[in-house]
Amino acid sequence: MTERAAVEHDERAEELLRRDPSTRRHPIDGKVMALVREGIYLSGPDNRSVWLEPFLIDVYPTTNEDYAKFVLATRHRPPQHWPDGHCPVTLATHPVVWVTWHDATAYARWAGKGLPSARQWEKAARGQRGRVYPWGNEPTAAKANTAEAGIDATTPVSRYQSGASPFGIFDMCGNVWEWCSTEEDPGSGRYHLKGSAFTSPFERAAPSLLNTAAASMKDNDTGFRCATPA
């Protein structure tokens, strides 16, 4: 339902979306967001019990099409892979890449949201029962765009429907690494990245795993999604 509403703008899906208390469309950037309810979840490779307050998180990563609205509204620097600074039509529904942590934070601020914390991101991916992967505990490489897929590029954010998390959130494994708001150490200038990418081996795809990078880093396999308190 959320895929149809977000990608096809189907009128019936839009009506269903309005009736579903667990999803809503954000008023500024128009992204469909899913509610992750408050409670304990299993965090990290050692499955520690962690309590989180309720929050909303984007069902899909920020796409090139989404980012184009931000660039047009703010005159922010476009990503380097856009020809002449314009969003490529063929990549409209692919996750935006070549964005630094600062770029991602600027988009989130414009949209009236923020980047998810590493713990929020992980709970949204694993669910309250701490699945190893968004879809369950079986390491099924066909449910994500990782190196084993052999695509060697980003894919549309709604492609891997069977890989959605318990909250109905897409691309929490593979496609692109996603910036989080959590700093590795205070003042370090390095921030957590989650989810792995099309360049990553599947063994790096589990949402509990740790990765960090300098805030100024940008690459062809790094993007983001946004979150906000519920």
Question: What's the arrangement of strands in the largest beta sheet?
Answer: 1-2-5-10
SS elements, strand count = 10
How helix-rich are the residues, as a percent range? Answer: 10-25%
Strand content: 15-25%
Order of helices and strands: HHEEEEEHHHEEEEE
In DSSP terms, counting alpha (H) and pi (I) runs of 4 or more, how many helices?
Answer: 5
Look at the structure and give the mean pLDDT.
92
Give the N-terminus to C-terminus distance in angstroms.
21 Å
What does this structure look like?
The chain has 230 residues and is of the alpha+beta class. Helices cover 20% and strands 18% of the residues. It is built from five helices and ten strands; from the N terminus they run ααβββββαααβββββ. It has helices at 2-8, 11-19, 64-74, 101-110, 118-126; strands at residues 23-25, 32-36, 39-43, 48-52, 55-58, 177-183, 190-194, 212-214, 222-223, 227-229. Strands 1-2-5-10 form a four-stranded antiparallel sheet. A four-stranded mixed sheet has the order 8-7-6-9. It is globular. Residues 1-7 have low confidence and may be disordered.
